[in-house]
What we know:
Helix content: over 70%
Largest sheet: none
Amino acid sequence: MVTGSPDIVPDSERRGVIGALTPRLRPYASLIRLDRPIGSWLLYWPCAWSVALAGVGGRWDLFLWLALGAFAMRSAGCVYNDIVDRDLDVQVERTRLRPLASRRVSLASAWLLIGLLCLIGLIVLLQLKWIAALIALLSLIPVAAYPFMKRITWWPQAWLGIVFSWGALVGWPAVTGRLALAPLLLWLGSIAWVIGYDTLYAIQDKEDDALVGVKSSARRLGNHAPLGVAIFYGLALVLWAAAIWNVRPDWIALVTLVPAAVHLAGQALRADPGDGDLALALFRSNRSCGLLVGLGMLVVGLSAR
């Protein structure tokens, strides 16, 4: 049920994909961030990397199934996050008009939407080998805890890394039927990558976060945020290289990471702790970084088989 005043809406609900929907559906589309697919992409890439590095095993359909799963689970995560944060969101300029914070969507409707999205996730789980499905289900534990981390630790980005990188632990066993060292290294590298890019994202909210008492790596690092981003990106590259080496111990295989390394270095060099708009643009560019890493993993995975 949609509640509250329909006139109190963010500009994003008046244009683009959401603006093309009927007024009744727009708050729900906004709730799942339909106009901002970057989160789905960032959740999807570790899944795709893991399938690719495993050599695909003839399961090319996994790329599509895991994309659907990433969209459904990211959407459900956004709704859940807004349920938990609805009182905080009212106090932050960027989030005060979110559907739950502005009471344009009821709490019961939000939970129902999560249920529908989880049904889509269940359909995806049924396409996976049992061990991959089980690992995917275990992700619900860190997902449930994530919204509370920014109230507890200065590094909620690290917990987000655990959540958003979980697909690296799912893709490999979805192909091979077992877990191995390579996807674990891929997962750890992805966690470092997420900490780096989400620190960039957090730069835009530093002032509002300070006002409401929310913690973040961007606030903790302050003016050293670009250096922190560079360190975490460097760690990600080292761990990704280790995952590649585990699959194909050949120096030439590591060359596949060079395009991604150049991309990430450019982000770190351009980052400005005082420029939230630039930080947001750099954050969004990680969709391209994910593609570069994915192509490299696919080359290595196919050539190692």
